[in-house]
Design brief:
The protein has one domain: F0F1 ATP synthase delta/epsilon subunit, N-terminal (ATP Synthase, domain 1), CATH 2.60.15. About 0% of the residues lie in helices and about 70% in strands.
Length: about 80
Amino acid sequence: MQLEILTPERKVFSGTVYGIQLPGTEGSFEILENHAPMIASLGKGKMKVLKDKTSTETYDISGGFVEMLNNKASVLIEDATALD
């Protein structure tokens, strides 16, 4: 699936990934390829980008939203700090 992670100041990540794990306001969840369309609010916590089944990138985020539509996830967040 395609993933874009954006803050108001910069593009944090853009590319093809296996999935993404996110800190939702009601608990953590994961989005994988061909997920149903959705919009969810995100809380403060760790976001893990699953580039493939063996490699990941982890970010500390401060909240925002994620939209999944047509096998593309768009993550709009206030700020992200890479933890790798």
